[in-house]
Amino acid sequence: MSEKTLEALNQKLDRLIDVISRMAPARTSEPRFEEADCFVWQAESGSLMPVGKVNRVDLSLMHGVDRVRDILTDNTRRFAAGLPANNALLWGARGMGKSSLVKAVHAEVNRTRKKGAAPLKLIEIHREDIEGLPRLMALVKADAHRFILFCDDLSFDRDDTSYKSLKAALEGGVEGRPDNVILYATSNRRHLLPRDMIENERSTAINPSEAVEEKVSLSDRFGLWLGFHKCSQDEYLAMIESYAHYHALPIEAEALRAEALEWATTRGSRSGRVAWQFIQDLAGRLGRNLKD
């Protein structure tokens, strides 16, 4: 074999090795939980990306959700202390602070933890990566920290079977859920599946009651169902006033009230999200920056 032929063969082998290397699954890197208190699960690489600055509001600014706020805070404190606690499903009206409450409670529990206690970790897992939940649990179960696995806007559409992976990860399987892991999820749907999907299962199944039971049983894996409902005008204005006071925005109370109501009217709804959007607009018009 000539040197030219041998060189050409080596080049082809190098290219083949490069292609195979790219096709091989990425090696899971060991997580470094000391880097941050919050992480985002990167399912493709099987790694956790630390989040240095979390987008959240202070728990004291959460208005109109007092009861669910207290329930979730108590549940989280018990879990952080190593006591029994439940998975939680926060469901209901959009824009009422479901995901904000999870992040705020996490920060509050860490802020008030006992001296020397390890911080509670929050890991966000995206809806499309829910099938990787067992892999994530396997990664964190041997660690000394305790973890909230958080999935925002969780729901399942027709022909989506990934909800079975979630059921198994929550309570199923031989091992069950690791003691140092709890799952918090938010959704606009109480049963996580659209009603027409459940009704379709009822009408086409050989045993309709069993088919519906299979779908509804997913939300039953969450020990806490915390409902969020549309806020009243008084609750909406309380949110506005709390934000304005916290961020020291220079505006008269009557003007603040009138502008806030006009803003809600133009948006056609009242919610925590609408209140925050108004505050951002107001701060911009006043030439003021908002506190971190």
Mean pLDDT across the residues is: 83
Number of strands: 7
- Spatial extent as radius of gyration: 24 Å
Estimated helix fraction: 40-55%
What summary fits the major beta sheet? 7 strands, mixed
Shape: globular
**Low-pLDDT residue intervals, each spanning 5 or more residues:** 201-207
Oligomer: single chain
Element order, helices and strands?
HEEHEHEHEHEHHEHHH
Kindly report the spatial arrangement of strands forming the biggest sheet. 2-1-4-5-6-3-7
Could you describe the 3D structure shown?
This protein is α/β, with parallel strands linked by helices and 292 residues long. The chain is built from 10 helices and 7 strands. It has a 7-stranded mixed sheet with strand order 2-1-4-5-6-3-7. Helix 4 (133-140) links the parallel strand 4 and strand 5.
Write a compact overview of the structure shown:
It is built from ten helices and seven strands. It is of the alpha/beta class. Helix 2 (66-80) packs across helix 3, helix 8 packs across helix 9 and helix 8 crosses helix 10.
Q: How would you summarize the topology of this molecule?
A:
Blueprint: H1 3-23, E1 38-42, E2 47-50, H2 66-80, E3 88-92, H3 98-111, E4 121-124, H4 133-140, E5 147-151, H5 163-170, E6 181-187, H6 195-204, H7 208-220, E7 224-228, H8 233-246, H9 253-267, H10 272-286
Parallel strand pairs: 1-4, 3-6, 3-7, 4-5, 5-6
Antiparallel strand pairs: 1-2
Helix pairs in contact: 2-3, 6-7, 8-9, 8-10
